[in-house]
């Protein structure tokens, strides 16, 4: 949000696949912010790295958000955090997480043995 002074930041989630005990959900965050070139995109997951030297002065922060996010996604069993970006246009970050499902409780009924 801090890199999008005007425009949009859109978060979306969609079901990728259903399994007996889990659901795979794809998350995307898109923005119309400052964007990055290919060189910046290649470094964006390195700790303490900003897109450009002046970014820290203009927007604050130390460049830990994306490396921490990537680690959390991996710890939760998700796939790699992907980035697509165009300088001056915006960025898209996406990943898929496997989430465990819970069988709904039946009120006042005893579950039948299988």
Question: Quick one: overall form?
Answer: elongated
Sheet with the most strands: spatial strand order:
1-2-4-3
Major sheet characteristics = 4 strands, antiparallel
Quaternary assembly: single chain
Report on the architecture of this protein.
With 114 residues, this protein is of the alpha+beta class. It has a 4-stranded antiparallel β-sheet, with no helix packed on it. A hairpin with a 3-residue loop joins strand 3 and strand 4. The N and C termini lie far apart (50 Å).
Strands, helices and their partners?
Layout: E1 9-18, E2 22-31, H1 38-43, H2 53-59, H3 65-75, E3 82-86, E4 90-100
Antiparallel strand pairs: 1-2, 2-4, 3-4
Descriptive keywords:
114 residues; alpha+beta; four-stranded antiparallel beta sheet; 3 helices; 21% helix; elongated
Quick overview of this protein structure:
The chain has helices spanning 38-43, 53-59, 65-75, and strands at residues 9-18, 22-31, 82-86, 90-100. By secondary structure, the protein is of the alpha+beta class. It has a four-stranded antiparallel β-sheet with strand order 1-2-4-3, with no helix packed on it.
């Amino acid at each position: 949000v801090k890199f999008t002074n005007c425009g949009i930041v859109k978060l979306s989630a969609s079901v990728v696949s259903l399994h007996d005990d889990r659901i795979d959900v794809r998350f995307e965050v898109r923005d119309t912010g400052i964007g990055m070139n290919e060189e910046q995109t290649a470094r964006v997951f390195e700790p303490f790295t900003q897109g450009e030297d002046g970014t820290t002065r203009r927007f604050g922060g130390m460049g830990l958000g994306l490396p921490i996010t990537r680690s959390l996604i991996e710890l939760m069993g998700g796939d790699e955090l992907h980035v697509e970006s165009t300088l001056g246009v915006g960025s898209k970050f996406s990943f898929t997480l496997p989430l465990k499902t819970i069988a709904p409780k039946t009120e006042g009924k005893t579950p039948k043995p299988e």
